[in-house]
Amino acid sequence: MRGNVAARTMQWCVIGMSMLAVSSLQLSAQTGSGGRDSSTSGVVLDAATNQPLLRARVSFVAGTDTISATTNANGRWSLPSLPARQWTVAIRRVGYRPETVQALLPNQANPVATVRLAPLAISLDEVVVTGARRAQRLKDAVISTELVTRSDIERTGATDLASVLLEQTGIELQGGHPAGTGVMLQGIGSERVLILLDGQPVSGRIAGVFDVSRIPVQMVERVEVVKGPQSTLYGTEAMGGVINIITRTPEAGVFNASVTATAGMQERRDGAASVSYGRGPLAARFDVGTRTMEMTPGRSATTGALAARTDASFKVRLAPDSARWLEASLLALDERQRWQSATLFNFGDNQQINGRIAGSWQRGRHRLSPTISTSVFNHTSLASRLPQPIAGDTGQRQVQRLHQAELVYSTGFGSMKPGHTDGAVREQPVSLGAVRHALDLGVQVRRDETQSVRVTGGLRSLTMTEPFAQLEVRTTDALSIVPGVRVSHSDLWGTYVTPRLAARWHVTDGVTLRASAGDGFRAPDFRELYMFFQNTSAGYAVFGNDDLTPESSRNLSVGAEWTAAGQYLRAQLFHNNFRDFIETRPITAPGQVLAFEFANVDNGVTRGVELETGLTRGSLRLEAAYNGLSTRDNATAGALLGRPTHSARTTVALLLPFNVRTSMTGLFTGRTPMQRDAETGVITSWRDAFTRVDMRLARPLPGSRAVELVLGVDNLFDTQPAQWAGFARRHVYTAFSMNFNNTSFR
Predict the structure, then answer these.
(1) Which of 137, 155, 164, 574 could be bridged to 557 by S-S, CB 3.0 to 4.6 A?
(2) DSSP sequence for 443-511
(3) For strand 660-669 and strand 146-148, is the pairing parallel, antiparallel, or unpaired?
(4) What is the pLDDT of residue 148?
(5) Is the predicted pLDDT of residue 33 greater than 70, yes or no?
(6) Which residues on neighbouring strands pair with residue 519, listed in sequence order?
(7) Comparing C-alpha atoms, which of 745, 744, 740, 746 is closest to residue 73?
(8) Which CATH architecture fits 32-117?
């Protein structure tokens, strides 16, 4: 592959930051948990894994006096000398059952020297933002939202987003062209699933597919998945749903450094390092990483394959008080791909830059949130009979640019009864007060540009202006109804309106019902509108069509959720009608050179059920899920291709002797139709069912909770189905990580 100065520079940054993190760990060993003498201190641990809990809050309350401390990465907290009196000590952390003890301090042995918090089967107090475009508890989200937490990410042992999503229920990965891994939701393909980074769209689709394996997870705090049309809040491409990647935010008063190194089969060599520091109102975080493997995403063959990526991300946050904050972030990616097709080696060189500036200003019940974002993707494709590109070959270059500005105004009105809140988490400065109703008004201006030799004219641009509104009405303390609408306008294809109506009902403290009905749309892209591609060796040509209209869909979803302290059960039914999907159709008479044209030709249905349950008992955690899918292509009266009828997942996590944490995940993907006869519509090729088992063991080094060793195996039994979208062989890896965190008193 060609040398790249930027990639080598980022790799040196990884080495430099690794040395910095190691120095920080050595300093931590010398100074302890802050270097101060404290008469009262303790440790907070996870009762299921015996691991320390970061950001657990320990509060001492006596009358009107409250003194609090927050745990660091070692689970430790400490306080200065306390007055001798009877204290009520509350230990809390989101995702765990709180503990409260009575203590006479400092005249008796410290009863909170070591506290173990039991994890909840599902944490309904986690903050999510995607379903409503504002922060709210998962419990109070009107739109059903699936959350992949940082703990879930770490449990997979993955270093890229595709490997994380692979182990989630109802998410099907699709192979891309020429190389990449797309995401399918509710039977709707990856071209129609919107990928967001901190709530903003990112460019980088090749032949309509966004390769999620390109995204590193070192910088990711959580992933929010909302299935079904979300065009009311997010516009085009959100027909099948939205995957919102939320990056890790630096905290005031916290220093953090970490280093991770992973090595495995298929010549896997991954490394990542991060530094985060906050002082006063200003906090910043910097992540760098490199990932190399002799395979190509979305392709099963490994002969001649290579994927090498280097990334760097930066986020800085200024928060003078709880009512104002300003945040800027940047992600830069450099990728080199190689795969072999017959006698040719194909190469894909990709560079991506995503930048974002966002802020929020609140006064009373009024909040204003402006955001400006830009995303640039540069793709170059080359081919050679050698494992290296031909010297001087510039290849075919395509540049995508996406710029967006948005302004959202939120307000609340009406008062809740005493004891109720608007669903905001106490630690998050997002509450509009104890309001009964909430109104969100916004406008987005988006400009897309594509520059390519395959696009007629070489350069095309499109500007869209899209106002939207939603109103959350609480008819009772338990029932919320949310109507919303978006109006999208473009000079190319006109105006499109996408309404939605959703409702959430807390039947009891543990039972919640949700329902939504809404429309989605996807605007035709530049490839479909203006493409001109001629493959003389294969004898065919593909033409764009500037008479295309937006694709559309209509969705109905209903779901139920039951939760208790140690268990939960979820069920959801969905039905999607899609219309005018854009596909290619032949436009030449028999005997002539083949020519195809994009057209609004496909209509059909996807419907199904998703079931999920979980249980925690001591150190044991069990999860199981099932996804049933039925599809119909109206043109052939048969099933849509590439959609499995059944899929399932089972996860078991357990703390073994010698402080070894283990997790095992079983994934089942049912028999899947792959090809059909063009004339009769009969399925002619099927992909066999695929059962995959992943296992991971992790153990901290003796005497150190900051250093951890990991051994993992993906596809333990080396199952190898034909026609699978991506690598499907056994993969063994080992990882080493170091973490240091120092949290100031609060």
Answers:
(1) 574
(2) EEEEEEEEEETTBTTSEEEEEEEEEEEEEEEESSSSEEEEEEEEEEEETTTEEEEEEEEEEEEE-SSSE
(3) unpaired
(4) 93
(5) no
(6) 554
(7) 740
(8) Sandwich (2.60)
Q: pLDDT digit string (tens) for 69-118?
A: 888 777 888 887 777 788 899 999 988 889 998 887 766 667 778 899 98
CA-to-CA distance for 279 and 488, rounded, in angstroms?
42
Is 127-386+396-411+418-743 a CATH 3.40.50.850 domain?
A: no
What does the chain come to in residues? 746
656: which strand partners? Answer: 660
Please tell me whether residue 304 adopts helix, strand or coil conformation.
coil
Assigned token pair, 386: 């050698």
Measured between alpha carbons, how far is 358 from 369 in angstroms, rounded to an integer? 7
The CB density around residue 250, as the number of other CB atoms within 10 Å, is: 21
For 51, 87, 221, 270, 314, the CA distances from 653, given in Å and listed in that order, are 14, 36, 21, 25, 33
Half-sphere exposure of residue 273, counting CA atoms within 13 Å on the CB side? 17
What whole-number distance in Å separates Cα of residue 99 and Cα of residue 45?
Answer: 12
- pLDDT interval class at 454 (50, 70, 90): confident
Domain ranges of the chain: 32-117, 127-386+396-411+418-743
Residue carrying structure tokens 């991060």: 274
Which amino acid does the sequence have at 490?
S
Mean pLDDT for the stretch of residues 344-358: 95
pTM: 0.89
